[in-house]
Design brief:
By secondary structure, chain A is an all-alpha fold. Helices cover 85% and strands 0% of the residues of chain A. In chain A, α6 (134-159) runs antiparallel to α8. In chain B, the strands form two sheets. Chain B has a six-stranded mixed beta sheet with strand order 6-7-8-3-9-10, sandwiched between helices. A four-stranded antiparallel beta sheet of chain B has the order 2-1-4-5, with helices on one face. Classes of the chains: A mainly alpha, B alpha/beta. At the A-B interface, α1 and α4 of A face α2 and α3 of B.
Chain lengths: 228, 238
């Protein structure tokens, strides 16, 4: 019964965030534009060398997703702060974890849409052909997105009460995301090259472990963070 | 005789709350029984809103304790949140959702039936704009929407912070009707006001918050909260 109530609340929070985002449009459009801009800037920085551009594609893709994702995570709590809606949200009885689950779900959908755009843009801009290993590549994108969104949603909640939240969030988040970025980039690089050395599996395992650890830890710690 | 705390809507004992080095509440103690409505007055910055925020679990007391219908605000916050409804001066609604969606969201979060939302909107006079997005609503309409959320909650204890702000005469009557309905089913209400006259028809008791402590007051003596007219204004009237 408690699980069903929590699930209903999580679904309501996710629906509310996604509906507000869909209607305002400003958030997703600007975040997607930032992701593409970062990819274009990487292209300029790397110069006309096609091989260098292609080799840098996995790193550029994940960094574009990371920078654009930070904007999205900040926005998800800004929505609550703008109209003073955080107080009523905290006054609803029931587990705080359902609030986190709802925010997580909404941010996950948001980041998946963002990644779809960034992946297509990087295929075009970095002259990357769709490899035969594309189903595995999608799996890595999903695992990487889970890690990114889990910590992004958690730290955005932590930074939301601070006046310097836009600066504070990347400062807290980026160091913690080094393992997930490294594993996602290496797995993507291996899969784009056809995974001849069978190394993508090891990096994907690291992603699974990272996601499991931080999903559990953030769900356990969210009460303390949001009540502070 | 020791009061039965479950029968008391509010039982606050030596509540204190500090922000940094500044003590806002300094040992506030008072009780409010079921079926009672009380007005709470005090000068600006005296801690009235802080007291309500502690009672509804938005803030933790630095020291002291309080129970709401027997549930401890620190140890049993979930029971308190179910029993107490806080009506803030800030509407706390989502501007990109419609009025109906806002109230339905609240109903889901409060484990109340979605169907209550339309009835609540009807009662606060927003049925005709139920399908409209909240962005563009006047401040009075936002307050009515916030009141609709409280109607869906149907709490046993109303904690109302400046509930008459932005309301016309009909809105003030509506707030008082909500208080009367709550009292009729054995609930209680604590109403923070500056405009004492609006709460007079419902408040059976009065408290004043002075120097961080809650003191019993009476309707005749709470008029001090209305500031005296300045000489310039008086001269202008003359």
């Amino acid at each position: 019964m408690a699980f069903r109530d929590d699930w209903m609340r999580a679904r309501a929070v996710a629906w509310k965030d996604l509906t507000a985002e869909r209607r305002s449009k400003a958030g997703f459009n600007s975040v997607a534009a930032l992701g593409i801009t970062i990819l274009v800037l990487f292209g300029f920085a790397l110069g006309p060398d096609t091989e260098a551009i292609r080799a840098a594609a996995p790193g550029a893709l994940w960094l574009a997703a990371l920078f654009a994702g930070v904007l999205a995570f900040n926005r998800s709590y800004q929505l609550e702060l703008e109209g003073g809606a955080l107080e009523p949200l905290l006054l609803y009885p029931g587990s705080r974890r359902s609030l986190f689950a709802g925010k997580l779900l909404a941010n996950f959908v948001f980041v998946l849409l963002l990644m779809a755009i960034v992946i297509v843009a990087s295929l075009v801009l970095f002259h990357v052909e769709v490899p035969g290993t594309w189903p595995a590549l999608l799996g890595v994108a999903l695992l990487g997105a889970i890690g990114l969104v889990t910590l992004g949603t958690f730290y955005a909640a932590m930074a939301s009460r601070s006046r310097a939240r836009e600066v504070l969030l990347p400062l807290l988040l980026f160091p913690m995301l080094v393992p997930v970025l490294l594993a996602a980039m290496e797995a993507t690089k291996a899969l784009l090259a056809g995974d001849v050395m069978r190394e993508a599996g090891a990096w994907a395992s690291l992603l699974v472990a990272y996601d499991a650890i931080f999903l559990s830890a953030t769900f356990l710690a969210f009460d303390a963070v949001i009540e502070a | 005789m020791i009061p039965d705390s479950a029968a008391l809507a509010i039982d606050a004992r030596m509540l204190s709350r500090r922000f940094g080095a500044r003590w806002v509440l300094r040992g506030a103690s008072f009780t409010l029984g079921a079926g009672e409505a009380a007005g709470l007055v005090g000068p600006n910055g005296s801690g009235k809103s802080t007291l309500l925020r502690v009672l509804c679990t938005l803030l933790r007391p630095t020291t002291g304790s309080a129970t709401i219908f027997g549930a401890d605000v620190t140890r049993e916050p979930d029971l308190v949140r179910d029993a107490a409804g806080f009506f803030s001066p800030v509407p706390g609604v989502y501007e990109d959702l419609t009025a109906r969606e806002n109230v339905r969201f609240a109903a889901t979060m409060l484990r109340r039936p979605d169907a209550d939302a339309d009835g609540a909107l009807e009662r606060v006079g927003l049925a005709h704009v139920a399908g409209d997005r909240v962005r563009g609503f006047s401040s009075g309409m936002l307050r009515r929407l916030s009141l609709a959320r409280l109607l869906v909650h149907r709490p046993r204890l109303l904690l109302l912070d400046e509930p008459y702000n932005n309301f016309d005469a009909q809105g003030i009557g509506l707030v008082n009707d909500v208080i009367r309905d709550t009292l009729a089913v054995g609930g209680a209400a604590l109403v923070v006001v500056h405009d004492v006259a609006s709460a007079m028809p419902v408040a059976g008791r009065w408290f004043a918050l002075l120097d961080g402590r809650v003191e019993p007051s009476d309707a005749a003596s709470v008029g001090y909260t209305s500031p005296p007219a300045s000489p310039a204004v008086v001269a202008g009237v003359r």
